[in-house]
């Protein structure tokens, strides 16, 4: 079954519009009677498709679906802006793995420079990827990609736990910080994670973040690429908090 | 610093050849005196570059480097052959995350069909990616990509723990199997992990694997893409076995 995030207004009017309607009518060739899930990011419903056109697909609600698919903590990933299409990969998999916010962040060693007008189209693209990944992984909400800030303009004061991935910590054998923090997370904690771009975190950025209360963490003995570090962190939080053992 | 895996013969002769020599001479523009790490997959050494040409770079050994970067268990990933370039992504990140073998496996719902001659070139490409990722992440060994078998031709009898990712288990709320198995892993255990292609595992494959001793495991409440499941599993094993807590 496919899930679709729609606006509150469309949910009230029982219609799906835009790209989703186009996909249902042309790619999936819906004829009516199909069952899908729709959500306004607050509640999710099983819906039966009624009429299908390229611009608009109407539906009726069959039943409300309850069930929480969200990580029990609020994780914001501040990702040093990487090269190529890595940012898209991070948003896609980071969404599946439960991040609540993914914030592409300009850091000293980010090579990519974006003009103002390019930023708007990049953000649109990133939000589309987050929406599609949230639909595919049956998230209750779409992660936010709010802006593309510079690291030192970010207000980190609302976060309870602050983690900065630091490769040198791995080289120095400091492997205790991450697990100590993650295994003590409380439900609904707000967790900020800063991951540097390919070139890593600059020394001045590291001391700036330490002053803001960030703890440098290594993620095992191997050197991980920037995108792999994000996958590791979110997987570990899920493993620690969402999975249980047999009695 | 860059790490290079070289043959035993090249290590004895203190030379680097092939693509690596080409890269050192043309892309990195080495002139001599640079320090790199070389390894024959058994031992690793700091090496000082002597003479550089496109075909051959000579070096002298400065010192042996000890230090284990390997996961304390032997994990073989049997990956249902996926579409597009996902297999390459899985080999790249799976290598960083510590897999010892990554075996692209034809399963019922694999869409890709490969002719015999295509298989040879695919394997060459996959092994190159594994080598490069092992170098970048400072692994002690290069993971094997031994062949591209059909699922039912594989002999799983040498494995101690057998995990099959099963999405339906997530839908049914069965979240205990994976953590129960992983948290009880013993050092040097041999772990087989089967992950289906995009369409998932076929019912007949699931019962075949269960007969072979595989335990169906869910990886949290969200539905993960096939490649994300691999990242989750390897990250969780590292988190469980390699990271410690503060006293």
UniProtKB/TrEMBL annotation, chains A, B:
Specifically methylates the N3 position of the uracil ring of uridine 1498 (m3U1498) in 16S rRNA. Acts on the fully assembled 30S ribosomal subunit. The lineage of its organism: Bacteria, Bacillati, Mycoplasmatota, Mollicutes, Anaeroplasmatales. This is Ribosomal RNA small subunit methyltransferase E. GO terms for cellular component: cytoplasm. Signal peptide: none annotated. Its EC number is 2.1.1.193. It is found in: Cytoplasm. InterPro entries: Alpha/beta_knot_MTases, PUA-like_sf, RsmE, RsmE_MTase_dom, tRNA_m1G_MTases_N. The keyword DNA damage does not apply. Its main location: cytoplasm. It catalyses: uridine(1498) in 16S rRNA + S-adenosyl-L-methionine = N(3)-methyluridine(1498) in 16S rRNA + S-adenosyl-L-homocysteine + H(+). GO terms for biological process: rRNA base methylation. CDD domains: RsmE-like. Residues 70-238 form the Ribosomal RNA small subunit methyltransferase E methyltransferase domain. It comes from the Bacteria. Belongs to the RNA methyltransferase RsmE family. The keyword Methyltransferase applies.
């Amino acid at each position: 079954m496919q899930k679709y995030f729609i606006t509150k207004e469309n949910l009230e009017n029982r219609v799906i519009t835009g790209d989703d309607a186009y996909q249902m009518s042309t790619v999936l060739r819906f004829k009516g009677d199909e069952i899908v899930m729709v959500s306004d990011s607050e509640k999710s419903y099983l819906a039966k498709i009624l009429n299908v056109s390229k611009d608009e697909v109407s539906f009726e609600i069959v039943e409300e679906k309850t069930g929480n698919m969200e990580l029990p903590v609020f994780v914001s990933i501040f990702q040093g802006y990487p090269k190529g299409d890595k940012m898209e990969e991070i948003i896609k998999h980071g969404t599946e793995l439960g991040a609540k916010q993914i914030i592409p962040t300009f850091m000293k060693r980010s090579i990519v420079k974006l003009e103002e007008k390019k930023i708007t189209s990049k953000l649109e693209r990133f939000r589309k990827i987050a929406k599609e990944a949230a639909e595919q992984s049956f998230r209750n909400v779409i992660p936010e990609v709010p802006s593309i800030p510079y690291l030192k303009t970010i207000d980190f004061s609302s976060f309870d736990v602050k983690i900065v991935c630091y490769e040198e910590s791995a080289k120095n054998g400091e492997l205790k910080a991450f697990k100590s923090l993650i295994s003590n997370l409380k439900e609904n904690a707000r967790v900020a994670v800063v991951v540097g771009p390919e070139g890593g975190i600059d020394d001045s950025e590291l001391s700036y973040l330490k002053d803001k209360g960030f703890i440098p963490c290594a993620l095992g003995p191997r050197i991980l690429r920037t995108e792999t570090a994000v996958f590791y962190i979110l997987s570990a939080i899920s493993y620690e908090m969402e999975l249980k053992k047999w009695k």
